[in-house]
Amino acid sequence: MVKNLKFQSNHIVVKFILGIIILSLLFGTINNYLNQNTNEYVAEVNGEKISFETLKNMYSIERMRQKKILGDNFFKISDNNEFKKKTYNYVLSQIIDNVLLEQYIKKINFDLPDDVIKKIILITPEFQENHQFNNKKYLNYLKSINLNNYEYIHLIKKKIKTNKLIHSITETNFILDAEQKNIMQLLSQKRIIKKAILKINPLIEQQKISYPETYNYFNKNKDKFYVPEKFKISYIYFQPDIKKIKCDFKEINEWYKKNINKYLIEEKRKYSIIQTKTKKEATLILSELNNGKSFSKIAKEKSIDPISSKKNGNIGWIEISSMPDEIKNANINKVNQVSGIIKFKNNFLIIKLTEIFPQQPKKINQVAEIIKNEIKYKKSLEIYHKLQKKVFNITNSNVNKFNQVVEQSNIIPIETDWFDKNSIPKKLNNPILKKIIFNSNILDKTKKLKSHSGLITLNNQSFVLSIKDFQEKKAQKFENVKNKITKILKKHKAIKQIKTKLKKIMIHLNNGDESILNQEKIYFKKPEKISRYDTIPIVSTIFSMPYPTKTKNVYTAYQDQDKNFIIIKLLKVYDEKFSPEEKNIIFEYLERNNADMTLHYILEDLREKSIIKYNKTFN
Question: Sheet containing 41-45: which strands, arranged edge to edge?
Fold first, then answer.
């Protein structure tokens, strides 16, 4: 109970899902779940198939999202096979997680009434005309997706319940008792592994590359071998400068008096609770309290909340602005006042107001530094905007005369060294400035130190740019890049060779033939103990390996950041018990800080207890 009330107070109260936002997501992906050919499936989760069509559509959506985030950089990596593979695996993993959560919701009877879904449909903009629900629009949409009203409500409910569960976990740190136990089991699990490293560097040195190979590679990839265009830029830069501004105590005192309502300590209240399983128990306890029995004593002896009962019912201080609905609705406003019986989820509460800390203004010495900075910032902005206006007028009057702009603005320009797209000075490394320098016609490359960009304003920073010097993009000669190409081809050959070797080894190992290790002179290092909360990159790989048996060892392989290939042998899986103190620390940490981690561990547990099969045709 405490974790729910406290976190409702920390995150305010979790409102019901914002229908419009969720439906906007659903309209983007709903057709992915309709009319699918499940014969062409990529994976099966506890018997439920994920179609290739679903994966293909969700992959396209993810690629569009990446393009939006990465901008022009997306095209540099979009055709990279490794990038495509990672995107594919990420999307498939997300779909599997979605299916697992939907199955989990069904299992725990996490339900929403049909009339709630109907209300959301009624306020959906796509089904409205003149701010009124249009039944014809709604029916036409159902016809277009080949569903009737009942089927559509069922589908929407399924998706919204998943979002509702995620909101419950991430916004209120909702964790079922069973999930607490499962999370603890996951965290306590340890795995003993051994590693064998197939190093790439020795193999690279052994590769032989012929002249025709390097020359052919150069001819096919000439666009990769060039000296990019280079610039030297001279620019004016200014921003609000708080360091040069002064502020005395008189100004601080006047500001404080004028804005005292900005510097208040919010009212907060201290509460205690008694939680019971049934209304009958709560009624009996309320009767005892009305007859003068001690609230703290009853809370300690009879409250079923495991945390507050140890503190005589105390759940601590809660600020007025973040008060949970359960306490607001209790309508208790006097110290020592006790509420009636309040329904909370499947339990019942009696709440007592034990102390009030009233709202009051902070003392001037508590906020003097804050006020000082506010005054200085305001003054610096005023000076900055005056200078900005002045520079703007000067640049407009001297369109092709950067030197005149410098002279009249009385700002010393900054001059860069030579730079290209890969070595942009930090101050100029901004998407808008880069576009002006590299991609636009704003700067005339032929009129050095005459043409300028005009005034450019970015988040209270102002620039005027001018090209001091410029070098055209040049194609590199084969002789200058021959050694570089040789290194690239050697690496390509070595990786191909080692992958072929590794594939052969893994086939033997997965078929139970470990003699291949001696044949290939592969030796494992000392055993390592791995925990699920270790920060090494391969944790998820290790914990996704199936359990070894007495008759068969389990192996997997991966490529590390140095491009070496590592074979992992899983020796043992076991649980390491936590002490009661350690358990409390873990749960408090999960409740206090890490809703994302909680959701992650719930999904880890669902994955571990599920049968997930992958269709090898698509993997």
Answer: 48-51, 41-45, 612-614
